[in-house]
């Protein structure tokens, strides 16, 4: 499945790069909207608790879809949706939230951006929980046409959940728990 997704992304990149043209000054228009789809590996560096078992770290695979809008000075807002599969426990963290967004676009096709967001976090662990998530990202992208680009992003996601006291068979602790991860993703962007 992961190889198929990677192969599809590479084929799409190949199709778009064959028709790519250099943006000249007359063609250059500032981008105000972007839709991004990113996928890549990550590392969960916090303790995870599932069925009375504590895991120290885990690898993860993150898939995200983002919509971002900028105003004239580069500042704007974003809407971010992330699914993060945690290998150690075989479950997912989900995040959906809004972010403050900043982007800087250059006439040579490079596009740099950063986000800081807050939103809802949920999971599909053996006992699903809801909570709060904090999202951060910084990215570098290259626009090979006026509307399409590829790029890489360094992303961080922290999910915090609360749990009840003494859940038989599941949690024997009280208070909050959660996951913290960092991921390096690659993806496609659509600018309009």
H/E element order:
HEEEEEEEEEE
Portion in strands:
over 45%
Q: Classify the secondary structure makeup into a structural class.
A: mainly beta
Count of alpha/pi helices: 1
Q: In percent, how helical is the residue content?
A: under 10%
What key attributes describe this structure?
two-stranded antiparallel sheet, single chain, 8-stranded antiparallel β-barrel, 192 residues, elongated, 1 helix
Give a structural overview:
This protein is mainly β and 192 residues long. The protein is built from one helix and ten strands. The protein has one helix at 2-18, and strands spanning 33-44, 48-50, 53-55, 58-70, 75-86, 91-105, 110-123, 130-143, 148-163, 175-191. The strands form two sheets. The chain has an eight-stranded antiparallel beta barrel. Strand 7 and strand 8 form a beta hairpin. The longest helix has 17 residues, at 2-18. Residues 15-23 and 164-173 have low confidence and may be disordered.
SSE topology:
Elements: H1 2-18, E1 33-44, E2 48-50, E3 53-55, E4 58-70, E5 75-86, E6 91-105, E7 110-123, E8 130-143, E9 148-163, E10 175-191
Offer a quick outline of the entry:
By secondary structure, the protein is mainly β.
């Amino acid at each position: 499945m992961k190889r198929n997704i990677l192969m599809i992304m590479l084929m799409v990149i190949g199709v778009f790069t064959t028709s790519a043209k250099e943006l000249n000054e007359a063609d250059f228009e500032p981008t105000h909207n972007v839709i991004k789809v990113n996928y890549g590996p990550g590392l969960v560096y916090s303790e995870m608790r599932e069925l009375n078992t504590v895991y120290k770290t885990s690898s993860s695979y993150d898939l995200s879809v983002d919509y971002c809008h900028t105003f004239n000075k580069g500042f704007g807002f974003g809407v971010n949706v992330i699914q993060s599969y945690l290998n150690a426990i075989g479950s997912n963290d989900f995040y959906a939230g809004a972010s403050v967004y900043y982007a800087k676009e250059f006439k040579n096709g490079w596009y740099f951006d950063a986000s800081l967001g807050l939103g809802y976090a949920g999971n599909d662990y053996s006992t699903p929980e809801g909570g709060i998530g904090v999202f951060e990202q910084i990215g570098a992208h290259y626009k090979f046409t006026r509307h399409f680009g590829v790029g890489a992003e360094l992303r961080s996601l922290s999910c915090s959940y609360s749990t009840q006291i003494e859940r038989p068979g599941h949690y024997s602790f009280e208070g909050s728990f959660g996951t913290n991860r960092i991921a390096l993703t690659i993806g496609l962007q659509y600018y309009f």
